[in-house]
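Postdoc handover notes: sequence design on the structure in folder B. Input tokens:
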């Protein structure tokens, strides 16, 4: 087949072949061997009776090492790799592997990947709609759980998706092994197969609320932190909490009462304070005691003929009696049960306690938080934060992993249907941050590894303003630090260009189905380390369900044919023919 080497360059060799070769040998791997070395190459081009063979690595003592230092000699013999060498490339010699797919170039030879290299590194899975991306992902997970000699009982796979397409592929996973369980969480109230997503408010951090409330200014973070400290006091609903409320209201009223404003405006601002912030002792209907008489609080602000309040002295004395001068209020946030109504009340008190009423710019930024929180509290999205009893973060994570029959779920699927993209992104960020922060604290480090799979990842993993406001983006942080603690992301997307460059640059494994858009191809070529133009060219001609795989899981980039999952996810196109066409009878 191969006659002789005609020339050798830094990266490839030109080899003369016999003219009557009938086999399609393009992309085949070959060995260039002499007495001292054995170089692995790949046939890139066939022109007349010559082939171009690119160098990929070297076999040393039957082990393959990627990259080359030495080149083959002109006297080297050239041959197609044998079964033993192919086995070294596709994982036959590794005892900690699972099936990925089949090699269409080598008669559907099974291609295996190291489980650790696959699930201990961030993964990018790209492909056009209809390229087999979803089926490929489903098959990979099914292959993991179909292993005979190894059981991933302690697996933790959290899937975030805007449809329930994976439900059919995983819901009967316990038929493989009774110890395996699948759990569905959904935002769709009509879906009786899943549980509704519920996030305890008290395990959310200030950064979570910043995402939820669409923070746009750093100043708003301080307000959120103050809100959380206040709500942890108010939620106790004891004498201390009521005393603190009266103190905050009194301080706010005094600051407005003696501000440099006309009485009418002062009155309006005080009334506005008491519309949202009041107690049994301080409210518009409270009776203010004087000497021999009482006056309703609102009446104290009637304006006399001199343009002043009729009872300024009386109301001042009354209000000042609630200001505690020497009290060292403990404003450290302590997780405690509270609901959205209590949180909204705490935000109202925060707005008056920070003296924002007299600062127009700061007040407008603060009001934006109030409007957003109020809209959530009065919308259907409120139900996602309605948890009846106090649970810790650890109990919350355990509840995600526990099935109704007290089994342990290995696959947890969050289906974010019937909510807008902005709110869905907030929920994914909140849950990802909760998971990441929880896993970080577990000792020893890496004792509870999890995989966060983001279907349609371009909806969530974007270059947001989080870095400017919070100092970081949660997905950027997981991408940079997650591997140390066992928090891994799998990004599944049809639009790589919309993904965060920081996150994509941290991916170590790539499974690329067919991509057509030039900007996506150029972006991958620019962002993915060590990717060659040959790999880009290979994926352009792929059939549906076939992909190019490279990274830490592969010794060399390889074309892999993914087997269809069984059962299949519901990811196929709608059948227009069946729905539109009717048989016309004449």
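Designed sequence:
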């Amino acid at each position: 087949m191969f006659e002789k080497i005609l020339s050798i360059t830094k990266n490839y060799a030109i080899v003369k072949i016999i003219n009557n070769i009938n086999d399609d040998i393009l992309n085949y791997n070959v060995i260039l061997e002499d007495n001292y070395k054995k170089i692995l190459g790949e046939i890139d081009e066939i022109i007349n009776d010559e082939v171009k063979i690119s160098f990929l690595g070297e076999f040393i003592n039957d082990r393959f090492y990627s990259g080359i230092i030495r080149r083959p000699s002109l006297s080297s013999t050239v041959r197609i790799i044998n079964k033993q060498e192919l086995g070294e490339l596709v994982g036959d010699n590794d005892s900690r592997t699972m099936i990925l797919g089949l090699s269409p170039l080598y008669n559907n030879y099974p291609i295996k990947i190291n489980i650790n290299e696959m699930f201990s590194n961030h993964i990018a899975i790209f492909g056009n709609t209809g390229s087999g991306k979803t089926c490929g992902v489903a098959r990979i997970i099914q292959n993991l759980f179909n292993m005979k000699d190894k059981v991933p009982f302690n697996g933790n796979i959290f899937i975030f998706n805007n449809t329930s397409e994976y439900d059919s592929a995983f819901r009967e996973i316990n038929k493989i092994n009774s110890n395996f369980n699948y759990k569905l969480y959904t935002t769709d109230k009509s879906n009786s197969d899943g549980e509704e997503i519920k996030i305890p408010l008290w395990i959310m951090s200030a950064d979570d609320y910043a995402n939820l409330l669409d923070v746009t200014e750093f100043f708003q973070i301080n307000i959120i932190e103050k809100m959380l400290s206040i709500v942890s006091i108010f939620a106790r609903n004891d004498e201390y909490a009521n005393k603190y409320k009266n103190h905050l209201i009194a301080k706010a009223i005094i600051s407005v009462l003696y501000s440099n404003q006309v009485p009418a405006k002062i009155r309006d601002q005080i009334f506005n304070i008491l519309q949202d912030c009041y107690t049994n002792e301080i409210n518009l209907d409270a009776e203010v005691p004087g000497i021999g008489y009482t006056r309703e609080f609102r009446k104290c602000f009637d304006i006399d003929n001199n343009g002043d309040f009729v009872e300024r002295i009386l109301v001042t004395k009354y209000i000042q009696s609630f200001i505690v001068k020497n009290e060292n209020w403990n404003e450290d946030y302590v997780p405690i049960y509270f609901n959205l109504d209590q949180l909204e009340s705490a935000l109202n008190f925060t707005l008056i306690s920070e003296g924002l009423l007299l600062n127009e710019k700061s007040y407008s930024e603060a009001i934006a938080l109030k409007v957003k929180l109020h809209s959530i509290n009065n919308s259907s999205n409120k139900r996602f934060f309605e948890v009846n009893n106090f649970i810790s973060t650890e109990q919350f994570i355990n509840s995600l992993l526990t099935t109704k029959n007290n089994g342990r779920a290995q696959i947890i699927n969050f289906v974010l249907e019937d909510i807008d993209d902005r709110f869905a992104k907030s929920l994914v960020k909140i849950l990802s941050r909760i998971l990441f922060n929880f896993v970080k604290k577990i000792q020893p480090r890496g004792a509870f590894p999890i995989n966060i799979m983001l279907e349609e990842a371009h909806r969530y993993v974007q270059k947001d303003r989080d870095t400017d406001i919070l100092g970081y983006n949660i997905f950027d942080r997981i991408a940079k630090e997650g591997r140390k603690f066992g928090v891994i992301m799998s990004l599944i997307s049809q639009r790589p260009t919309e993904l965060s460059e920081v996150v994509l640059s941290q991916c170590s494994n790539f499974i690329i189905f067919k991509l057509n858009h030039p900007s996506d191809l150029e972006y991958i070529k620019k962002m993915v380390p060590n990717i060659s133009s040959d790999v880009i060219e290979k994926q352009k001609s792929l059939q549906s369900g076939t992909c190019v795989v490279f990274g830490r899981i592969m010794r060399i980039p390889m074309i892999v044919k993914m087997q269809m999952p069984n059962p299949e996810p519901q990811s196929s196109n709608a059948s227009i023919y069946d729905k539109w066409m009717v048989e016309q009878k004449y």
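Context for whoever picks this up: The two ends are 63 Å apart (CA to CA). Don't rerun without checking with the PI first.
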